[in-house]
Amino acid sequence: MKALVSLTLALFLSLFSVFADAGETPFVQAQYDQLLAAGKPVIVDFYADWCPTCKAQKPIVAEILHDPKMKDVTLFLANYDQEAALKKTLRITQQSTFVVFKGGKEVARSTGQTSKDEIRALFERAL
After folding, report:
1. Distance between CA atoms of 107 and 100, rounded to whole angstroms?
2. Three-state SS for 105?
3. From the centroid of its chain, how far is CA 66?
4. For the segment 30-88, what is each residue's pLDDT rounded down to a tens digit?
């Protein structure tokens, strides 16, 4: 019985670690620049801790990023209140904005979207 509990706990912890590392990473300018220059699929999520729309988007984004076909996509979490230079560069005027890049170029963006199907379609533009 003890082995079963240990196995169950290990399985739970491994699943939790997968979900905790859903392809989201805090915004780092050098890494962002490197991935864009390499033409990798990139999404920037401008969020704010105080934003109810951002909170609604979070579990949807996590679920979408766990789709195996999204494995090569890097989603940068850019804090709307802290990333002033990036906001200016990308002309972002509102939190809860996603900016999608493919081949080093912006291919789509969306603000305030909370439909899982719409967010999935937006993110797939990076592929």
Report:
1. 6
2. strand
3. 10
4. 999 999 999 999 999 999 999 999 999 999 999 999 999 999 999 999 999 999 999 99
User: For residue 24, what pLDDT band results from cuts at 50, 70 and 90?
Assistant: confident
Q: What are phi and psi of 110, to 5 degrees?
A: -155, 145
Tokens of 52: 């109810």
SS3 state of residue 26? strand
The arithmetic mean of pLDDT across residues 5-34, rounded, is 60
Q: Give the span between the Cα atoms of 108 and 89, in whole angstroms.
A: 15
67 Cβ contact partners less than 8 Å away, ≥ 6 residues apart: 120
Q: Do strands 97-102 and 42-47 pair parallel, antiparallel, or not at all (unpaired)?
A: antiparallel
The domain segmentation of the chain, as residue ranges, is 23-124
Look at domain 23-124 and name its CATH class. alpha beta
Q: How far apart (Å, rounded) are the C-alpha atoms in residues 113 and 97?
A: 8
| Residue that has been written with the tokens 């920037």 in this structure | 44
8 A C-beta contact, residue 114 and residue 56: yes
Cα four-point dihedral sign 52, 57, 59, 60:
positive
